[in-house]
Amino acid sequence: MKKIVVTLLVFAMACVTAFANDNSLWEKSTLNQVLKRGELRVGMEAGYMPFELKNKKGEIIGFDVDMAKELAKEMGVKLTLVNTAWDGIISSLLTDKYDIIMSGMTITPQRNLQVNFADPYIVVGQTILIRKELAGKIKSYKDLNDPKYTVATKLGVTGDYATKKYIGNAKINLFETEQEGAMEVVNGKADAFVYDLPYNSLYFAQNSKNLAFLNVPFTYEPLAWAIRKGDPDFMNFLNNILVQMKGDGRYQKIYDKWFGTDQWLKDIQQ
Known about the structure:
Blueprint lengths: L1 H27 L1 H8 L1 E6 L8 E2 L5 E2 L1 H13 L2 E6 L5 H6 L5 E2 L7 H4 L3 E2 L4 E3 L1 E6 L9 H4 L5 E5 L3 H9 L4 E5 L2 H9 L5 E5 H10 L4 E4 L6 E3 L2 E2 L4 H17 L1 H10 L11
Parallel strand pairs: 1-4, 1-5, 9-10, 9-11
Antiparallel strand pairs: 2-3, 6-14, 7-13, 8-11, 8-12
């Protein structure tokens, strides 16, 4: 009898401990802190069309921005966008400068060591813009893997990693922004520019006189929202709201707005 009583007491204590730990996790959860604060802080770099960019008024707009608005709306809190340089975007999340990264970030094992990713919300890949004169000569990334070619891309992004991995024999020039890298090709200072399909598609549409476009991605890159580690409540909310938005049509509406048309370009062109 005593043995049964002791066993029950141990079980009860374990349950109390587990309940206390669960409550502690919730208290520390970013989701709980956002609700208490009444504000969702979202980190992004406003320079990646059409995910996040600035309009004529200097406001940050884009696909990720509209998705962030839906998150804040569901939480019943205000939205604050924090424009951050890409090379410090993860470290700023880890030091609590914002609650989540929503900035067209590709899931990679290296990044996953520092942050946790929600389920992917879109899949993109690396494509190539080339000088018009090279159309027909350069048919894939393999043709660029030669010291005689100069390839531009953005520093610290998956285009950087993919270029070094697959086109490492070429001369590689890295730039702080997408625009600088792409302009190198337009100006004839580089033979090719490697970057994500959505951005290159839009850039080619605007500069087709000077460029040729290899529009079949040569990498597979799922994009996802990043949060700090050890936060199952926030992760659960993010994954569930993404499923809900895809199911009720909100995701498709936002997608069509930014990828199904280029009408939004008039808001950023001077």
